[in-house]
Amino acid sequence: MNEKRIPQRILLGPGPSDCHPEVLKAMATPLVGHLDPVFLEQMNETMQRLRQVFQTRNPLTLAMSGTGSAGMETVFVNALEPGDRVVIGICGAFGERMVDVASRTGAEVIQVRAPWGKIVDPGQIQEALKSHPRVKAVAVVHAETSTGVLQPLEEIGRFAQNYGALFLVDAVTSLGGVPVPVEEAGIDACYSGTQKCLSAPPGLSPATFSPRFEEALERRKRKVQSWYLDLTMVRQYWGMERFYHHTAPITMMYALHEALGLLLEEGLDSVFRRHLVNGRALQAGLEAMGLKLYADERHRLPQLTSVWIPDGVEDTLVRNRLLNEYGIEIGGGLGEVKGRVWRIGLLGHSSRRRNVLLLLGALEQILRSVGYSVESGIGCQAAEGVYRDFLAKE
């Protein structure tokens, strides 16, 4: 067979990120059965590691089979029934996706909107709760991947609890990159993905559910509309009973187990600092080159930076040249900013000083070649200044 060789890329888009070599090595571990005692023990270790990363003691903490979108659907189909009310904060494409998924459950969706690039105002969430009695749940995206905005959670979580609503949070791009304070913020259901800051391939959705969420699950009047994502059954496979539900993606579980181990070995505080330093260095470098960042300065993610494309510069031309000439992938815009912004990810194993400087240098060369005026080396100089400043504070 003539096989097309897959090239080596540097993944600096919004996901997937580069896998750690030890994660790829773990995926070559021999298969065992999904009910093998050795595998079940590894599942126990994975649950414990997930609790540490989610910063929670929730017993129901597991990895759903499927990508982060499966995690989103798991949360909504288990939380909501026809006629329930849910308040959803929307400030980007993945808030819009929440609306779509929630509406398919037959729930009444109350939308609280903010301009793209800004956060959802917690006060507006409170007003929605005041105006609509018997709200079952409040949902927001913690790290909006389409814009690079980091949504504060604690105040919204407090409002949800005050009104007796479940608090549902998308942490697909935030888990492992910034703190996800599940218990401090009063989060009842939180889901993520393996392919962002955890640096494993896409295919699993880590998730955690509070005892309050489990109580609400027990009070459902109807069966969960999705058999595959029904937590009343899936939790029996992950719990003490170990009842067969579906064949777990064993190799992906090996990957997640190793990825979590590497993250915890580095230490959560060190991981968060690494993402912060590299993100700030990248952002300083882009601004020094005269580029304008998209997300509100007060609420920018360090691990996902959105930047306006300069006038007269063609989006796909630059991204294709980065890919073909330098082997670097960055992402384009989604929704209302499609073709207008680039999204640059420094996620997990991709969040390295080398990658920051390589990207800034490559982007400068391409922009200069298409007529954009930028001083030679200024982006890398600004980034190096950030590294020096952080080092001086240690």
- Could you give a short account of the major beta sheet? 7 strands, mixed
**Biggest sheet: strands side by side, in what order?**
2-10-9-8-5-3-4
CATH superfamily of the largest domain: Type I PLP-dependent aspartate aminotransferase-like (Major domain)
**CATH architecture title of the largest domain:** 3-Layer(aba) Sandwich
Fold and architecture overview:
The protein is an alpha/beta fold and 394 residues long. The protein folds into two domains: 21-265, Aspartate Aminotransferase, domain 2, CATH 3.40.640; 267-393, Aspartate Aminotransferase, domain 1, CATH 3.90.1150. The protein contains 13 helices and 14 strands. The strands form four sheets. A seven-stranded mixed beta sheet has the order 2-10-9-8-5-3-4, with helices on both faces. Helix 4 (93-103) links the parallel strand 3 (85-90) and strand 4 (108-113). It is globular. The protein starts with 9 loop residues before the first strand and ends with a helix. The mean pLDDT is 97.
